[in-house]
TrEMBL record:
Source species, domain of life: Bacteria
InterPro entries attached to this UniProt entry: Leu-bd, Leu_Ile_Val-bd, Peripla_BP_I
Keyword hit for Transport: yes
Signal peptide range in chain numbering: 1-19
Protein name: ABC transporter substrate-binding protein
GO BP terms, alphabetized: amino acid transport
Family affiliation: Belongs to the leucine-binding protein family.
Pfam families: Peripla_BP_6
PANTHER family: BLR6548 PROTEIN (PTHR47235)
Keywords of the record: Amino-acid transport, Signal, Transport
Length: 370
């Protein structure tokens, strides 16, 4: 009888270890249609390209990696539903690359309950900066980004700052970050709150101009920011404008066209054209090999860097590899040099990078680091 029980236990353990089958599944909810689809597709494509690069070399820990991306249409409720589907039906090693803090809010508690890493959300907002055993970020906080922007513009004597933000939990917190910074130098920002996923009209543009800003600080999506910028340029109203990296620089430049010239945007990864940086070269090749014919952009690069870091976590996970052993490996990753770009994780520190650069859009649509 004991031998039967022992055999059953071994079989159950083997079944659990092989629940992922012949592939390691990475789950992702991301906007592939709707108002932020270009950004979502770049996140997916950058990660998918690196996973394909790893797979072409035999995979990791004996298996290929499969990225399962579900479309959330930039809708918080759909992202929550997609997360539930991924966790219950796909048994992922990790959840990866959600496109915003808003889309992550209801997903993180599900990941925590399942003991699955929630890795590299594309946001530096406060809700994804909390201490959580399953949450890992790969980018600087929005506070660090805003400090970079405001240090530059305040040094030039600008005083009237209007923050364009969404009228929701995350958007209000972004405004408060600017508010706290400016309080230190006895300045008070103005706010222009917007409803998420609602088109920008002349009403919003006029409301912005009525505040007579010296500086416009966007914490909104690329499409909305581009609409503001195009209308302001058409009206001949040139106002210094900056944006957080959340905008998606390349998506904004594409949407705004020639009107994007002069806008400054924070970057949380090296310039994607910096071929002297090894990880930039590696990711550019992986993306080109995946069939993408346009030059790599900063969103794709960030996704590729995050994917490479996650693969390293899988590589270091103890056998039998599972979501829990990957979680443990990431928590003990230490300082990891990806090739000219470093991240660091420990059991008490899950925010891997503080890198921030401020770049300006040139007349020919390139990003030039300041």
């Amino acid at each position: 009888m004991k031998s039967v029980v022992f055999a059953f236990v071994l079989a159950a353990a083997a079944l659990a270890a092989n629940a992922q089958g012949d592939k390691w599944v990475i789950g992702q909810s991301v906007p592939l249609t709707g108002s932020n689809a270009a950004f979502g597709k770049d996140i997916r494509d950058g990660a998918k390209a690196y996973f394909a690069h790893v797979n072409s070399r035999g995979g990791v820990q004996g298996k290929q990696i499969e990225l399962v991306s579900l479309d959330d249409k930039n809708d918080r409720k759909q992202a929550a539903a997609n997360t539930k589907t991924l966790l219950e039906e796909k048994n992922p090693l990790a959840l990866f690359g959600y496109a915003s803090a808003t889309l992550s809010l209801d997903a993180i508690p599900q990941a925590e309950k399942a003991d699955v890493a929630f890795f590299a959300p594309f946001s530096g907002a406060n809700p994804v900066r909390v201490n959580n055993p399953v949450l890992f970020t790969m980018r600087a906080s929005y506070g660090e980004e805003m400090e970079k922007i405001l240090n530059f513009w305040m040094s030039l004597g600008l005083k009237r700052v209007t923050v364009v933000h969404y009228e929701d939990e995350v958007g209000k917190q972004n405004f408060e970050v600017v508010q706290k910074y400016l309080q230190k130098i006895n300045l008070v920002p103005q706010a222009l709150p917007l409803k998420r996923n609602v088109p920008i009209t002349k009403v919003e543009v006029d409301a912005l101009l009525a505040q007579q800003p010296d500086l416009i600080l966007h914490t909104i999506l690329s499409g909305a920011a581009a609409t503001f910028q195009k209308q302001l340029v058409e009206m001949g109203r040139i106002v210094p404008t900056s944006s957080l990296s959340f905008i998606g620089a390349d998506q904004f430049i594409t949407a705004a066209g020639a009107s994007a010239s002069g806008v400054s945007i924070t970057q949380v990864v090296p310039n994607p054209s910096s071929q002297q940086v090894p990880v930039v070269r590696e990711c550019a090749k992986a993306i080109a090999d995946s069939g993408i014919t346009t030059p790599m952009n900063s969103t794709q690069l960030e996704a590729c860097i995050a994917a490479k870091t996650l693969v390293e976590g899988i590589r270091r996970a103890k056998a039998p590899v599972s979501a829990r052993t990957v979680l443990a490996a990431l928590s003990n990753l230490g300082t990891y040099d990806l090739g000219g770009y470093k991240v660091a994780f420990s059991s008490g520190a899950h925010h891997g990078s503080k890198f921030v650069d401020l770049a300006m859009v040139t007349r020919d649509g390139r990003l030039l680091s300041r």
